[in-house]
Structure formats: structure tokens, C-alpha cells
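# nightly structure sweep
# worker-07 picked up a monomer target from the shared queue
# config: single-sequence mode, recycle default, output format = C-alpha cells
# input follows
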Amino acid sequence: MHKNVLITGATGLVGTRLTEMLMQKGYQVSHLSRNEQPGPIPTFQWDVKTGKIDDKAIEGKDCIVHLAGAGIADKSWTDQRKKEILESRTKSAELLYQSLKTKNHQVKTFVSASAIGIYGFAGDEKYFKESDAAANDFLANVVSQWEAAVDKIASLGIRVVKVRIGILLSEKGGALAEMIKPIKWGIGSPLGTGMQYMSWIHIDDVCSLFAMAIEKESMSGAYNAVSPHPATNKAFTKAVAQVLNKPLWLPNVPGFVLKLLLGEMSDLVLKGSRVSAEKIQGAGFEFEYAELDAALKDLLKK
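# output follows
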């Protein structure tokens, strides 16, 4: 029985690829969006700020995949932007909760994006698992509140899976696109000490993991979506340069320069965390791109 899936935040990197993947598998996919989208995919409208949602959006759906949320690294972290980053996630989850609570529907599964930012940043001695407590910095607080809003949906008897996405590698944008720019210009170098860990994942693996979360009824709760082989920033930068056949510019970009340029957002690149993929592998997930070289060759040689 092919499921009927509603995706929020469907125009982002994950939503676009996941839509393709689910449709190839024979799913019926529709989108929940702020704007009307021209094209073959049925689109329902919602407005998180005013709390409006099309009554028909959840009708006949078996599963909701919740990916909506303002980009973490798109703009500098002013107080206003921080509020937007938080509320675009919590209020959208709250709106879906209210809709599921008050309307007739057949939704059995709710799969939400989340982020490894919940663990904060620690030295390389720590390997984070799903059972670890949340940290207490801006991003960790955002993810904690986001997950709490999503967890309310489980109280309605709906199976909830939270996919804690690591550093997403895609040829179409995101972190990788930013990292390759200086390397392409021949001025790439590791950032800060270069020893901070990057827990990364290939876009196809993340989407396969979402598909598995939709299909596998024994899955619930949080799962880290990261490759089993995190890399230091230095190793990552070197690997990208090798695949692109570019020299690396030495020395490293000093941390204070990045702090001046990015402010608090510099944490995203100067600090890292090693995150474990054990739980998702234990659930039977097999990575297509477990190794960084294979992932980079696939994405950068396209």
C-alpha cells in the first residue's frame, strides 16, 4: 500500500530530493507551502505567522514529513533572525499539532527534521549519542524547543521520528557549496585549528533515512543522520581539494578573523562535534556514502 505523504519545507535541499525519491518509490506526495507552487505536485497553503492552514492539507494523508524552518546559516544572527530561526520551527510544529488534534485525519506517522546542533560543540573526545543531554547554547536551545514542539504530536497517538541532521552535503547548495568556493579559487584552507569535527551526511543518505523512517514502524524517537565517519575540518578541506584537484592555501584561516566576519555564527565552522551513527545503523540503515571520498566524488564530479 503506497502511502500518501505531505511534506512541509519541500522547496529546500532535503524536500526537493526527498520528493523525487518518494515519487520514484510510488508514493503520492503533496506539499504544504507558504506560496502556491506551479507544477504537478499538489500544494496546500499555510501561514505559520498568522496560524492559518488549509483544512484539506492533512486530509487523506498517512504521513507528514516536517522540514520547514528558516535557514540557520542564511543570514547573520541578529536578535530578530534568531527569533525567526526558532519560531519558524516551533510555531510550524505547533500549528501542525493543533491541526492534527482538532481535525479528522488518518495520519499515523510524523517524521520531523531536527539537528545535531542539540548536542552543542564539544572537543573531539566526546562521541554524541541520541541519549545525550542537550547543550545550552543558542542552536541547542532552538533544537530542544523544536523537538519538544514535535513531541507533543506523539501525545495524539501518532508515531513520531526526529531525524537529527548533520552537516548536509549536496551539490545544489548548503555547507558544501560554501566550502568549495575558496578551494575552487585556489585559496582554500582549514578554518581555525582545523581539528574541529564535522559530522556530515550525503543528501541521498539523508533522504533514504527519511524514507526508512516513514516505512519502518518500529522506528520512533530521535536518530542521528550522520555518516559513521566524521572528519576533522582539516581532513574535510583536504579531501575536497583533492577531488577538485586544487592546491590548499596555507596557513589556516585564524579563528578571530572568522569571528569578526561571522560573529556568533562562527561557532558553526570553528566548533564541531563528533556524532554517532550507531543507532540508525542498529535499526538496519545502510549508508550509500559512508566514506567522505565517495560522497565528495559523487557530488563534485556531477
